[in-house]
Amino acid sequence: MSPRKTAAETRHTRQRILDLGLVLASAEGLEGLTIGRLAAELGMSKAGVIGHFGAKESLQLAVIDAAAELFVREVPERARGVPRGLPYLRAAGEAWISYLERDLLPGGCFFTAAAAEFDGREGPVRDAVVRMSAFWQRELRVNIWRAVSLGELPPDTDIDQLLYEVVAIMLALNHFRQLHGDVQAAARARRALEGLL
Q1: Rounded to the nearest 5 degrees, what angle is found at the Cα of 49, between the Cα atoms of 32 and 28?
Q2: What is the average pLDDT score of the chain?
Q3: How many whole angstroms separate alpha carbon 106 and alpha carbon 85?
Q4: Who's near 132: CB < 8 A, 6+ residues apart?
Q5: Contact 140, 166 (CB under 8 A)
Q6: Which long-range contacts (CB under 8 A, 24 or more apart) does 152-156 make?
Q7: Torsion sign across C-alpha atoms 76, 79, 81, 82
C-alpha cells in the first residue's frame, strides 16, 4: 500500500469519525460523545478511534471545529460578496435562518446546544465554544456599525442592543423548532429580523 493511499485513508476515516461525532453531539451533547459509541457505530475498535484523536477532550474540540466549518460554510460564506452593512446583515440573517430551517444537524444549532451544555463550566471545550460565538458576533457587530455609518440604520442605533436582538431571534428560532416542533418558527424569525433591520 502506498504512503499516499494510507494518508488519504487516514483522512477519510478521521472525517467519518468527525461527521458522525458532529451528528451525535448535536443531538445528545458533547459530553454524550464517547469513543466507544463512535467505534461501535463505525465498526471500528476503540483504539482505532483513539488513534485519531487521543483523549475525549481532543475529540470534542475536533467536533467543535467541524461544527464551526459547517456553520461558516452555511452562513457567512453564503453572504460572501454581498455589500457590507445592511445588505450583508440581511443576507447573513437569511442564511442563518435557512441553516436552521434545513435541519442540517438533528439537534438544530450545534453552538446553541453546546453553549447551554458548557456555559457553567471552565476549560478548553467551553473556550472553543466561546471563541466561535465571539467570532460570529464580531462579524455581525462590524456590519451593524457599517450600516449605521453608511446611514442604512439610524445614527442613534444601539449596536450592542441590535446585536443582542439578532442573536436572540436565532436562539428563539432554534428553541421553537427543536423543543416545540414549531413549523412556523422560521417564518416568525424572518418577520422579527425584518422588523429589526
Answers
A1: 15
A2: 94
A3: 32
A4: 64, 67, 68, 71, 111
A5: yes
A6: 152/85, 152/86, 153/86, 153/197
A7: negative
Task: Retrieve residue 114's grid coordinates.
Answer: 453546546
Element (H or E) spanning 94, and its range?
helix 86-101
DSSP string, 157-185: --HHHHHHHHHHHHHHHHHHHHTT--TTH
Whole-angstrom distance, CA of residue 35 vs CA of residue 46: 6
Contacts of 11 (CB under 8 A, 6+ apart): none
Angle between helices 124-149 and 86-101 (to 10 degrees): 140
pLDDT for the residue numbered 55: 87
Global pTM value = 0.90
Rounded mean pLDDT of 152-175? Answer: 97
Residue 5 pLDDT greater than 80, yes or no: no
Q: Helix 3-28 and helix 56-74: axis angle, to 10°?
A: 80
Amino acid identity, residue 106?
P
Nearest to 14 by CA among 55, 56, 66: 66
Please state, as a whole number, how many other Cβ atoms lie within 10 Å of the Cβ of residue 3. Answer: 7
